Request: fold
Amino acid sequence: MATVAEQWVLVEMVQALYEAPAYHLILEGILILWIIRLLFSKTYKLQERSDLTVKEKEELIEEWQPEPLVPPISKDHPALNYNIVSGPPSHNIVVNGKKCVNFASFNFLGLLDNPRVKAAALASLKKYGVGTCGPRGFYGTFDVHLDLEDRLAKFMKTEEAIIYSYGFATIASAIPAYSKRGDIVFVDRAACFAIQKGLQASRSDIKLFKHNDMADLERLLKEQEMEDQKNPRKARVTRRFIVVEGLYMNTGTICPLPELVKLKYKYKARIFLEESLSFGVLGEHGRGVTEHFGISIDDIDLISANMENSLASIGGFCCGRSFVIDHQRLSGQGYCFSASLPPLLAAAAIEALNIMEENPGIFLVLKEKCERIHKALQGISGLKVVGESLSPAFHLQLTDSTGSREKDVKLLQEIVNHCMDRSIALTQARYLEKEEKCLPPPRRRTGESRAHNQGGGPGCAALGRVLGPGGQPPRSTRTGLCIAAL
Amino acid sequence: MRPGPGGCCCRRPVRANGCVANGEVRNGYVRSSAAVAAAAAGQIHHITQNGGLYKRPFNEAFEETPMLVAVLTYVGYGVLTLFGYLRDFLRHWRIEKCHHATERKEQQDFVSLYQDFENFYTRNLYMRIRDNWNRPICSVPGARVDIMERQSHDYNWSFKYTGNIIKGVINMGSYNYLGFARNTGSCQEAAAKVLEEYGVGVCSTRQEIGNLDKHEELEKLVASFLGVEAAMAYGMGFATNSMNIPALVGKGCLILSDELNHASLVLGARLSGATIRIFKHNNMQSLEKLLKDAIVYGQPRTRRPWKKILILVEGIYSMEGSIVRLPEVIALKKKYKAYLYLDEAHSIGALGPRGRGVVDYFGLDPEDVDVMMGTFTKSFGASGGYIGGKKELIDYLRTHSHSAVYATSLSPPVVEQIVTSMKCIMGQDGTTLGTECIQQLAENTKYFRRRLKEMGFIIYGNEDSPVVPLMLYMPAKIGAFGREMLKRNIGVVVVGFPATPIIESRARFCLSAAHTKEILDTVTHIMANWQFLVAVLCFKGDR
Reply:
């Protein structure tokens, strides 16, 4: 019944439409349009956009006071006054006029004052002068650069190497050459500052995993896999990278490379490995963490290291397969847009490589020394050794923090000064506290060097003595902060 | 149709940013709003004279690309692109042999490391003329240089060294402005001495234990050279920019950057997290408008006023050969209370009667520039970079610069090279050698630029800039010019897209005090004789 009635109403309506006078229809049409307008127009009128007058603008400009370019620095900022080293920074070092045994620089193989390295650099200086006066592209490629790249590739047993003129710029340029906006990078929390800057420059999505925690990494990778399944089209163009360090600068620990390689193939993410500390240190021939774990270098997509530690020169390099490395020759910003490495530094690095190849025994010596000093430093009251026993750079950390970073830093500085008074040069590991993603606790960093004498090593023993209970007790005991020996 | 010397260029429209008068600056810095001098016939110079601002004529010209040339250039790129697609197609179906390295088998199912189009340009355009770059040399990069001969049997995919050395190639490519790239003389001797004493490396950072007495000496010298309170030196010029700008500005700050700024400045600005706005190259109206708007309207969305505004400019722009309009920039910066970061990578040593860079060139006070940045790579024949300025600034950088905390410090022999060459420029070595070099470079610049102009080449930039870009426009000419010049024993730098706008490919000459008049004459003579071979004149007579 109802439907019939409705139909009748509809018919009547249509009929009424036919019969209605024209003015009526026009009026209703206008009304409908009016309603539409009311529906779509804004309900309120925007405040009249009164543009500022010239005078007002000038007043605003007059009023504006910028912050100072740099905030003032207090005179006693711990990093303001640098230690001044006179003379060469080798095994024995003169810091602020005081002769010390050097436990602070990264001259692991003692090649800094090696006469052969110096002679090679000198010969190069006499042939090429100092500077290159141009980037690699524009007459800044010297034959020594090509030699060095060749030698590094051969040394690392890989296809190609590329050198940068600054260690820091190496990984910081390499990461953004591959990883772009939208790509995903899995990175260890403890990654060094250069990696952090490279990641920032790449503008990729960054996923931090807990330091050396493979379970955490796998969790993140799994999460990503789930995400990818939801959106397979996006996943097809999203590159995944895992960025790790061989030996971590910030912790002195070694990365679990075998597990990482397994994860790499399981989740199809490429591995970038920063080896600044491990190159020329780990492995039978000093090839770094890949050799240490016996992993084929082809399984790692990119290895970067600087030549400023073991090789005791300046600059850095990346190596790997040509398919990967060659891309940096046009896309590595620090490579393309910077003057090339002074040839004398390249020549020094070549000679250092020669020495490393000729005496593979030095790596064993270094390893033994590292282990010995690690042992010697155990059991100092209030201080704990952080890092692997085979790491030539490791940290001493307060067992009990005073609670404030500032106080800790001060305390550690006192310990450093105390050692310095006893002719042992150590250094606090410096960080830019505001810039670091995950700030490591304050520590002292100790660089062990092969140059320190063998057989117990007076340097090693002295370090132990000064820091240990046998020597003058460090001030920390007096402040009563560190009581028990570990 | 070859034009007579100096003729025919005056009718050509000149690109606005090069020479149009500057807008009025109110605070009385500019009295006469710059009058574009009606250039006499035969001159393309438009002279900007800004009352008290400029103490010397500021002649800078960028000719607009002629329409015909522009069209032909685009057609050229079009043809190259078509062929590129064709050959990619052939490679895809394995009809043409694939030369480039490929992904290893085990990782074929990974997400591709490169996007396909990303390498299209490299594969199909760059590869054809790759032999013009990365030419390996095996001598001092002085006025003449020895180049290792190389051959390619697979169209530049790989190079083989023949073992021959092309000796005595005239070097118009290196940034050896003052001729300090030498393997003899006082600099080399001093560097050798330091090398034997210190070794080459440092193995630590400045803040830890890598601060040598040599570094302290260098920084004091740099400060006195620049006429600023203090200075700090860094191991790499590129990193000086990219690692220090983030220490100066951050979130809530505004960076105003010239559109043609170097990659290192761009990277530094990006890393800082500040908002970046770009003004037209050397265009003061554009800069002033941005400054005004920034202060009046504040930050977008939050509408808070900006914390601070930093202007990033370079002294000499290395691809354009232009000199920054520093007097106007300083006037604007003062008026709007912005800070000025001046990158003197190419201008330090190369400009000014005393070689103190662009500040010296305009006779200004270094105090007016907040951050004086420069490199040691070019004029000093070494490597590294510096920042100079007020003591507070340097103290702040000493504690907060990324470079001081995390990067290895400068190599001692390199430091010594800088110290010796800088002392030489300052006349502290008891000779007038430095002054002579500066004068020689200025003369060479004037002479070479004048000769090229007379011969009818289109060159860009300021008449006092030792960087001389010569316009080639078309992609095919990039390769042709570079190769033909090398055949005639002249090494030049050629650049195309993406380093330049797509239709403005160019060759670049960098003058040096080490160039003698004979060398420059040889170059200009050869160019005059062979210009038709590569047709660099770009149909000049046709208009």
Observations:
- The radius of gyration of chain A is 33 Å.
- Residues 449-462, 468-486 of chain A have pLDDT under 50 and may be disordered.
- Residues 115-358 of chain A form a domain with the Aspartate Aminotransferase; domain 2 fold (CATH 3.40.640.10).
